[in-house]
Amino acid sequence: MTPDTPPPLFTISELASELDISTRTIRFYEEKGLLSPRRSPGNQRLYSRRDRARLKLILRGKRFGYSLTQIAEMIGMAEVDLDEAEQIRRSLAYGEEKLREIAQRLEELRLLEQDILAVRQKLIDRLTHLEGSSSHTHSED
């Protein structure tokens, strides 16, 4: 790309298709101040590489279970450039919080697994007992 070549721009449809999301989702993030696309002379939204990268970060944050408020604090609002060190501190803090939640859920799942295995064994034992008892009553006939 030469200095005179404008950076590539993406339409909302192109981004939606590429990222497998709806155009409504992209507009929603724009309404929340997370994206700030340019407008063409015909008022069509035009997204820069930066907008595309921010959208990918938003989607990754959602996939990791972060709220839009948390994502906004980590990546900053579209119109405001957050201090990078502050973004990193916030991201680390939210990451630590998410890791604690995951550890708690893993422990809950381990306990649930133990409960299900115990019930399963009781059911197997009972079934074995019932089948053993019914074979004894039939053999006496």
Give structural attributes:
elongated, 3 strands, Multidrug-efflux Transporter Regulator, Chain: A, Domain 2, 68% helix, 2 domains, 5 helices, three-stranded antiparallel beta sheet, mainly alpha
Structure description:
The chain is mainly α and 141 residues long. The protein folds into 2 domains: 82 residues, Multidrug-efflux Transporter Regulator, Chain: A, Domain 2, CATH 1.10.1660.10; 43 residues. A 3-stranded antiparallel beta sheet has the order 1-3-2. Strand 2 and strand 3 form a beta hairpin. Helix 4 runs antiparallel to helix 5. It is elongated. The chain starts with 9 loop residues before the first strand and ends with a helix. The model has no long low-confidence stretch (mean pLDDT 86).
**pLDDT average, as an integer?**
86
Outline type:
elongated
Spatial order of strands in the largest sheet: 1-3-2
CATH fold-level assignment of the largest domain? Multidrug-efflux Transporter Regulator, Chain: A, Domain 2
Computed over alpha carbons, the radius of gyration is 27 Å
CATH architecture of the largest domain: Orthogonal Bundle
CATH class of the largest domain: Mainly Alpha
Q: Name the helix and strand elements from N-terminus to C-terminus, one letter apiece.
A: EHHEEHHH
Number of helices: 5
Helices and strands: which structural class?
mainly alpha
Number of domains: 2
Ends apart, CA distance between termini: 92 Å
Low-confidence parts lasting 5 or more residues at pLDDT below 50?
Answer: none
- In this structure, how is the largest beta sheet organized? 3 strands, antiparallel
The proportion of residues forming helix, as a percent range, comes to 55-70%
Query: What is the β-strand count?
Result: 3
